[in-house]
Task: inverse folding
């Protein structure tokens, strides 16, 4: 198994929005379609489906 990384602030928000504690999970894989995390204690893998928030582009005429 790969070594997990500490989640970033945006990843922590996504983990918390799925009802999990970000302090107990590590990020294994981060793709635009899903975020793969692993629990620090039980070593269970989870896939969280979610998209990063989109920002508006403001065009000046």
Result:
């Amino acid at each position: 198994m790969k070594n997990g990384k500490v989640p970033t602030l945006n990843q922590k928000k996504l983990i918390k929005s799925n009802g999990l504690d970000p302090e107990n999970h590590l990020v294994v894989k981060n793709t635009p379609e899903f975020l793969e995390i692993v629990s620090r204690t039980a070593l269970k893998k989870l896939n969280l489906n979610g998209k990063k928030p989109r920002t508006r582009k403001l065009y000046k005429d």
Remarks:
- The chain has a mean pLDDT of 84.
- The two ends are 51 Å apart (CA to CA).
- Residues 38 and 45 are 4 Å apart (CA to CA).
